[in-house]
Amino acid sequence: MQGRTWGLRLLLLLGLRLGSQEALPPPCGSQIYCHGELLRQVQMAKLYQDDKQFVDMPLSSAPDQVLRHFRELAQTHNLSIPRQELQMFVQEHFRAVGQELQPWTPEDWRDSPQFLQKILDPRLRAWAGQLHQLWKKLGKKVKPEVFSHPEQFSLIYSRHPFIVPGGRFVEFYYWDSYWVMEGLLLSEMPETVKGMLQNFLDLVQTYGHVPNGARVYYLQRSQPPLLTLMMDRYVAHTNDTTFLRDHIETLASELDFWTKNRSISVSSGGKSYILNHYEVPYGGPRPESYSKDAELAATLLEGNRDTLLAELKASAESGWDFSSRWLVGGPNPSSLSSIRTSKLVPVDLNAFLCQAEGLMSNFYSRLGNDSEAAKYRNLRAERMAALKDVLWDEDKGVWFDYDLENEKKNLEFYPSNFAPLWAGCFSDPDDVDKALKYLEDSRILTYQYGIPTSLQKTGQQWDFPNAWAPLQDLVIRGLAKSPSAKAQEVAFQLAQNWIRTNFDVYSKKSAMYEKYDISNGGQPGGGGEYEVQEGFGWTNGVALMLLDRYGDRLSSGAQTALLAPHCLAAALLLSLLPQ
């Protein structure tokens, strides 16, 4: 009887604490890693500096035993467990982070890949060789015990080894892995790429989509959909059509996930279009950032908390967690409590899907399935029309996110505004020159150490003064693919600036970082929810891509890099004059 009474009290207490939170389902079913009183008490006690540490710790025994012991402890202390007792409980029932993974040296890693010979600057060539070495440091393999006892881990089992971002990110992530794979292919490591691709395809077959990362607490949110592009890069490198044929339906089902769960109707000029947005209708704080989310939610009226927590997850799904991009149009655009990610139609998400639809059409043509090829060709054409009519701004000459509630574009600068150029999802060749003029008018070319993530200084990590490798790639390759000589020259200068920042910081700190502060000479980045991380998967990948593309021109020295802002236009003009 006493146990039933305690259980009833616990339910009443949770109801009072969470208010309407139970209206939305939790991020996953685990009462340890995704929701429940144990998770709440440990994370709100802040036993660890980073909430992610606790939810990454494996269990020492079965979850029902751990939960039973926790209930007994909570009952003893009338639900208010002293911090020291809670600490002892965690030490007794959980194991240290990372024990379910083992270091892995990729079997296809070889010294001196060919692309190194294209790099003429000897210092940059030596540095590129060190970046190539880093793949061995970032390789991981899941131990068999995760397969045999999955309930004791937040890590999702993967059959094949993989490359991780680095630092606190000891598991693999969805969109990070695309730029990692580009670097691996330059390093002549197609078998590693194939294994990573297979892991993603396995996730789609199991869950119907690619989760944000390989943890159960990430299960209900995805990340920018680049799986089709990963397959394209692998097949282009290996010509492995058999692998493509075996998995084409899985690629199709991943795109179906975005169609069924992330579509939104948008009206423009009297016509209605279907585009996509980020949306994660799941309740509770993000387990890996539990205390921050719970404290932020507590500042709002009870009825608004569910919405806030779902919007925070949608922002995590975008990959841009967090940014002024998702705060604009809210009641207080400088506060994270104004976040409204799902109310915006993002340029980059729709460009990625447009590109994927084009690639799927090409894949089906290659495999002899003309009807499916035509279906995806039509989907791409419909999305191209929507990008032009809803997101393109003729006055500014670039694409912008569309605000569904306020029925207008968000005219702020973000590198994602250039994603259709990168994805090849535009039909008017003049769009490149217009976008280049927009870049100049926004004074982005005056930033000597990289392209800023925004021009808003909010303290969030996806804002000024941080610069991120994948966003450099969106702009640089978007311009580099153009037939315009001027656009190509600007692309090179931007690449030179970014390589110089990466190289200079590496020269001082012997590390690559996930992001860089470009406001004061190029430093490791800051802001956001955690300390800047070393590693770093996608930064290495983008650096190798730029060193491969421009290796015969890039310089490690100051004289040709980092032209003073007023000199850049003159340099571009001179470069276009007949020699």
Automatic annotation (TrEMBL):
Q: Which SUPFAM superfamilies match?
A: Six-hairpin glycosidases
State the species of origin.
Bos mutus grunniens (Wild yak)
The leader peptide range reads 1-23
Q: Which family does it belong to?
A: Belongs to the glycosyl hydrolase 37 family.
- Cite the EC number: 3.2.1.28
**Keywords linked to the UniProt accession:** Glycoprotein, Glycosidase, Hydrolase, Signal
Read off the Pfam families from this record: Trehalase (PF01204)
Instruction: Look up the record and give one Gene Ontology term from the biological process aspect.
Output: trehalose catabolic process
Instruction: Describe the function of this protein.
Output: Intestinal trehalase is probably involved in the hydrolysis of ingested trehalose.
Using the UniProt record, name the top-level EC class of this enzyme in a single word: hydrolase
| Superkingdom as given in the UniProt entry | Eukaryota
MF GO annotations: alpha,alpha-trehalase activity
Catalyses which reaction? Answer: alpha,alpha-trehalose + H2O = alpha-D-glucose + beta-D-glucose
Put simply, this protein is called Trehalase
Q: Gene3D superfamilies under this entry? A: 1.50.10.10
**Name of the gene:** TREH
